[in-house]
Design brief:
- The complex is a heterodimer of chains A (414) and B (111).
- Chain A has 16 helices and 2 strands.
- The longest helix of chain A is centred in the N-terminal third of the chain and has 31 residues.
- The N terminus of chain A is likely disordered.
- A two-stranded antiparallel sheet of chain A has the order 1-2.
- Chain A is flat and about 80 Å long.
- Chain A is 76% helix and 1% strand.
- Chain A starts with a helix and ends with a helix.
- With 111 residues, chain B is an all-alpha fold.
- Chain B is elongated.
- Classes of the chains: A mainly alpha (414), B mainly alpha (111).
- At the A-B interface, helix 7 of A face loops of B.
Chain lengths: 414, 111
């Protein structure tokens, strides 16, 4: 009996000892590499998040285009061969058009712009009745070209003098009108910036991780490549903003400029890191100094992503409401059950958004990015701190989970 | 005997001019309007064709000073389009554009 008890105790003690050793081994193993799952890195997760943010921003455009396409199909005179196509969707507030033509006399002289103005401000005795040639579903080639030229002119002016308050206000109203009327309008400057920004920040986190692990053969090239890509992104977004107007609020547009500045700074830091790769203390200093810039950048990109999120959800729901009303009208006139069943299936194309959940999901992604960054900066400063390496791993797993949840929400809303 | 690099530059700048004018024909800017789309597209085609023909010429057989003159004329035409694409300044008349581009095509074709 005593022997059995002793034997059992020995087993228990040995087992416990083995568990302790196993735990220690696991801890050491976890701590000696930054990523528990080496196939998943910040950059891999960041790419998913970045792409989903790009996709989400296009949802509003798809919803409104569905309505515009039905209107275009009603009128054979629509100039569908033109590069840009605009649907008449209520009047331009005449003041918007008058202000634009006052500001840009080159365009005011064009016959298309004169026609556009005459349709918006009928001066005949029958004021209030729309003239015959203003009743088409689409703006004519000349009228559409007028709108396109005016947009470019505003974009050129705002790029040259960004602080011009009156031009910015006018341009924003004008862009709002274009957003309502243009079929398949090109994606917004903001969505390009946020999607790329999230991807590139994730890559910066990977560079930091390599710095912390002193993987000197790897991080200089990564830093150089990322620096070049960031410079190209800043340039590309800057050029796009000179051609295309944004109908975002002035606050969002200022955020875009701030983000561009911060990304440019990050590109500079990365370039220096790649050049001074041998000097560990200098790198540490750079990373610490850059911490504020990156935190500011994350905050700014978050603001840009959220800035129009609510607006997009609102417009989307309003357009869904209109589409559903049209669908219902058709449904009411349809006599056979089979055709009605097809219309019912079509209803699935017009689902309302869940704006609150989407906004929360966006916030969670940026929260996680921010925490991961802070953890990595801490690790760069103390690369031998085993506890911190475990925290990094947790942050990565959290980032992965948050992005996955964000993707699920975005997919469900589509 | 023309410098190979200069001829290569002439080729790439001529291609760029063809692309610029083609883009203008699909989304015109003042002084142009959609009524000018066909004329712009036709001229852009002539610019593209002359770039293609230049590509087949042997650099060493071309006269150096004439290559430089052609390059200057192509760049002058490009500068006109760059001006209306990037500023809101008062544009030259349409005739100035068409004549300058025609002059550039003539010079490149005569090399």
């Amino acid at each position: 009996m005593v022997n059995k008890v002793s034997f059992d105790s020995a087993i228990v003690r040995t087992t416990r000892a083995l568990l302790v050793v196993a735990f220690a081994l696991i801890s050491i193993a976890c701590a000696s590499v930054v990523y528990k799952d080496s196939a998943t890195t910040f950059v891999a997760v960041g790419r998913v998040a970045g792409k989903q943010m790009d996709d989400s921003s296009k949802q509003l455009d798809s919803a409104e285009d569905a309505i515009r396409s039905t209107e275009i199909a009603t009128d054979a005179s629509c100039p569908i061969g033109d590069k840009r196509l605009f649907v008449r969707a209520g009047k331009v507030a005449p003041a918007t058009l008058v202000a634009a033509l006052d500001r840009f006399p080159n365009q005011a002289a064009l016959s298309g712009c004169k026609k556009l103005l005459s349709c918006e401000q009928p001066v005949s005795a029958n004021a209030g009745r729309v003239p015959m040639d203003c009743r088409s579903a689409c703006y004519s080639s000349e009228e559409g070209n007028c709108l396109s030229q005016l947009e470019r002119s505003y974009a050129i002016e705002l790029k040259a003098t960004p602080a011009n308050g009156s031009a910015l206000e006018e341009g924003t109203s004008f862009a709002t009108f274009l957003q309502r009327t243009e079929y398949r309008r090109a994606g917004s400057v903001e969505s390009k910036l946020v999607g790329s920004g999230v991807r590139d920040l994730s890559e910066y986190l990977d560079v930091l991780a390599k710095v912390a692990e002193a993987r000197k053969s790897e991080y200089p090239d990564d830093a150089k490549r990322l620096s070049e890509r960031l410079s190209s992104l800043v340039k590309g977004v800057g050029e796009a903003s000179g051609k295309q107007l944004s109908n975002s609020s002035q606050a969002t547009q200022k955020q875009v400029q701030t983000a561009l500045g911060a990304l440019g700074e990050l590109a500079g830091v990365l370039q220096t890191m790649s050049q001074d790769a041998q000097d560990a203390s200098k790198i540490k200093q750079l990373v610490t100094q850059n911490q504020v810039n990156v935190e500011g950048l994350i905050a700014t990109l978050r603001a840009v992503a959220l800035g129009d999120g609510t607006l997009a959800a609102t417009y989307s729901d309003l357009s869904m409401r209109r589409a559903r009303a049209m669908l219902q009208a058709r449904f009411a006139k349809t006599s056979d059950p089979y055709s009605r069943s097809l219309l019912l299936v079509e209803r699935e194309n017009y689902l309302y958004t869940d704006g609150d959940t989407m906004l929360k999901a966006v916030n969670d992604v940026f929260d996680s990015l921010s925490k991961s960054h802070l953890a990595l900066v801490s690790l760069v400063n103390n690369p031998t701190d085993e506890q911190k390496k475990t925290i990094i791993n947790e942050r990565l797993q959290n980032f992965k989970a948050v992005v996955s949840a964000f993707v699920d929400v975005a997919q469900a809303v589509k | 005997m023309a410098n190979t690099t200069t001829v290569a530059l002439l080729y790439s700048d001529t291609c760029k001019l063809a692309y610029t004018e083609t883009s203008m024909s699909t989304d015109p800017r003042a002084p142009f309007s959609p009524a000018d789309n066909n004329a712009l597209a036709n001229q852009a085609t002539r610019v593209a064709n002359c770039a293609r023909d230049l590509r087949n010429k042997v650099a060493g057989s071309l006269n150096d000073s004439r290559v430089n003159e052609a390059l200057a004329q192509v760049r002058q035409a490009q500068a006109l389009f760059d001006y209306i694409n990037n500023t809101n300044g008062v544009p030259p008349s349409k005739g100035v554009f068409f004549d300058t581009v025609d002059g550039a095509v003539l010079m490149v074709n005569s090399l």
